[in-house]
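[Solved] Which block belongs to which protein?

Original post:
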Amino acid sequence: MKKALFITVRKDSSRLPNKTIRRILGRTVLELVVKRAQQAKNFDYVVVCTTTRPIDDEVAVVAHENGADVFRGDFKDKLVRWRDAARQFSIDYVVTFDGDDLFCEPHLLDMGAEQIAARGLDFIEAPEGLICGAFTYAFTVKALEKVCEIKASDDTEMMWTYFKDTGLFKVGILENVAPVYFNNEIRMTLDYPEDFEFFTRIFEHFDCVENDVPLEKIVAYLNEHPEIPQINIHRQQEFLDNQKKKTHLILR
């Protein structure tokens, strides 16, 4: 039973243009994300899932240069892109890693891979209150295939609704997560200029060009320096409101 970590990346972005190739400590955001993902231990593949558009050629090149596998697929439909990637690599279980989440925690990714296989679930999400950007989702490819059969839209950026709200799947939350990873006053995802400033400050403090500082150590630093989370936390409600507006469940 093969497990893969899928890093979902497109080069274009409206709120923070070219964020994937912006540089921190001389390395692109994508390089730093791939290095973070490669610290997880429970995966057969780390796959950068991008599109077939020429604009994403650079994404594929950077991913290959940094030792990740690459799948190029559907531009708009993230679920179909994942399904086709899973078919190409013969994957059974997937944990997702958004290309925006530079400090997504490898330990939690490993836990997601373990739990989706051991608990008989189709889909696992982050528990309420987990730091935004610390963990996203885990799911079986069998459930992913079913979702792609029943959906009637290619607008699947907010893909979770097809697993959670159809009543067809066994859904759970990531369990046994340490309290240090829960904090609603810390935002760790890259969508706005303030987010880029937030990440830059942390990378510069730790001088972590390998992006290998454990999340618990980063959180401890932020607790000692509350002015840094204040750089971007005011963007969180706007971020959540935008996600809500883009969430649509359209079935066949």
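(Second protein starts here: sequence line, then its structure tokens.)
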Amino acid sequence: MNVPRWLLRHRITVEPYLGDSAYGPQYGPPVEDVPALVAETIRTVRDREGREVTSTAQIIAEPGLNCPAESRITLPDGRTTKAISVAHHTAPGLPVPQCTEVSAE
């Protein structure tokens, strides 16, 4: 069971992080109008290297969202941010919704 689509009231744009090059970070083509639920609250989270950093936006989206850490995200208010960490929540066999959770700068 996936997170109900009617709960995903916001729309975001995701530019998936592809890696670094000699010219800086490289991103894939933007995916626009991604349904999501965005909460702009300040939280302390751990980045992919285990350091504590501050997240100013948390995003819930459908499972399978292609948004690796360092991806560029445009929030509903137009602010551009980067993904700090991504968690894919699944619970096979249990009646709870699956989703992707992204913590952003």
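Accepted answer:
You had them paired correctly. Confirming on the second one: The first strand starts at residue 10 and ends at 15.
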